[in-house]
Every structure is written in structure tokens, then in C-alpha cells.
Write a structure and sequence with these properties.
With about 240 residues, the chain is of the alpha+beta class. The protein is built from 8 helices and 9 strands. It has a 3-stranded antiparallel sheet, with helices on one face. The protein starts with a helix and ends in a 5-residue tail after the last helix.
């Protein structure tokens, strides 16, 4: 996606009210964060070491674009957690009987079967963070790549609840990804200088997703966070 188009999509989502969120059938679960999966769905092909290739998050910028986005982010100290609550980021939004959590499970899974309430009853989910494949949707979390609490400390404390809801339910950018619940809980609300996915090879994609989300929503980064993201983008090579 062109840089201007990605920014426009993020801005449109950021100002959208809950009932106006885009992305089709929308939507539950924890954030320690179509029947036909889009291009970001898990790829069962060999990743080169015998493991599945991890899914590529929606709206992931190219490494050089991510570098430009990182350079444009404001570096500032973390803001206060005063007033923070996960309830200030209403999730998961619902539309036409499906929740955002259910939609991401369908999008990121393989051979996903759902019941009449859109709830997955079977399928498999490859977790790019820990390299594990899960077959029980109860073992899968939908991670907010930029955690809600981190966003609050980065500038979301000044947003309206409507904008926070758009952020927490963003299906257009790389903000939501299905991962194993245990690895997601180990992440908590930590930034990349404090926590990274155990699968080191995913560091490039993780940095690209993190930077894209922060740029789209004009969130700050700390200096240690910026330095770690810069180092991770160096691992992307010439891709």
C-alpha cells in the first residue's frame, strides 16, 4: 500500500465511530492485546526450516517505508497511566453478528469452520510470535501489536473514546494478529525494547507492524523504543 493510502486508512479508522468501523464483519478475547482468508492469512508452505511461514499482517509497509515512518515519529518520554482502563478502548466491536476477534481468527487461521454465531469451532492457527501451531481457538489470543496501555502512554490518553475504539478494532492495518495466548500474556503492554517475539526471525515484521501502527495513529515512541525498532529494521535486509 502506498504510504499516503496507508496513512489515510489509519486516520479514517481513528476518527470513525464504533458503528462506522470498516473491514466487513466485525468485532472479543484478550489482549495481553471471511470465509475466504485474505492475503494476510497463515501460509502453510515451508518457511525454509521446516516450519510454516508466518502470516503477514494486513497493511504491513515495506522495510524502507517503515524506516521513513520511524524517522517521522515523535520521540518523547512515556506519559502517565493516570485514568487508564481497558474499558477506555472498547473492544471487540460487533457488526452483523461477528466480532473483531472472530474475524481475525477466521482471517489468520487455516481451514477455519465457524458456527452460526461466527465462533470458530475448528481450524489451525500458526502463531508467528512463538512458532507454534494451535488447533483450539481458546488457546489463541488476538494481540494488539501496539498494546492498549502502551498507546495510552504514547498519546492515546488525549483521544476520544471513539478514536480509541477504532484503534482497538483496526482490521485495516497491522494492529491485530492471532497468536498463542501464553506468548501474548508474556508480552503484556511492553514495547519492543522490553519484549520481542521469541522467534527472532519475526523481528523485522514485528518492527514494521509496530512502526506502521504508531505512525498511522501519530503515537510517540521513547528513545530506547526507537533504537530497538531501528535495529530490528536493520534485520530486514534488502526486502
Amino acid at each position: 500500500m502506498e504510504r499516503a493510502g496507508w496513512r489515510l486508512a489509519g486516520i479514517c479508522l481513528a476518527v470513525a465511530a464504533a458503528g462506522a468501523l470498516t473491514g466487513g464483519c466485525q468485532a472479543e478475547g484478550t489482549d495481553s492485546s471471511d470465509s475466504t482468508p485474505p492475503s494476510g492469512s497463515a501460509d502453510p508452505s515451508d518457511g525454509g526450516d521446516g516450519s510454516p511461514s508466518p502470516p503477514s499482517p494486513e497493511g504491513l509497509p515495506a522495510p524502507d517505508e517503515a524506516r521513513e515512518l520511524l524517522d517521522g515519529l515523535t520521540v518523547a518520554d512515556e506519559r502517565s497511566m493516570t485514568g487508564y482502563s481497558r474499558d477506555r478502548f472498547p473492544h471487540w466491536s460487533s457488526q452483523d453478528g461477528c466480532t473483531v476477534r472472530q474475524e481475525v481468527l477466521r482471517r489468520d487461521g487455516e481451514d477455519v469452520v465457524t458456527n452460526d454465531d461466527c465462533q470458530p469451532t475448528s481450524g489451525s492457527w500458526y502463531s508467528a510470535y512463538d512458532g507454534e501451531t494451535y488447533t483450539d481457538p481458546a488457546d489463541v489470543d488476538i494481540d494488539h501489536v501496539v498494546p492498549l496501555a502502551n498507546a495510552w502512554r504514547s498519546g492515546a490518553d488525549a483521544w476520544t473514546d471513539e478514536r480509541r475504539e477504532a484503534f482497538a478494532n483496526d482490521l485495516e492495518g497491522p494492529q491485530l494478529i492471532a497468536v498463542g495466548d501464553r506468548v501474548n500474556q508474556s508480552k503484556g503492554d511492553q514495547s519492543p525494547d522490553q519484549w520481542l517475539p521469541p522467534v527472532e526471525a519475526y523481528g523485522c515484521d514485528y518492527a514494521r507492524a509496530w512502526v506502521a501502527v504508531k505512525a498511522a495513529y501519530e503515537l510517540n515512541v521513547t528513545e530506547p523504543e526507537r533504537q530497538e525498532l531501528d535495529a530490528l529494521l536493520d534485520t530486514c535486509g534488502g526486502a
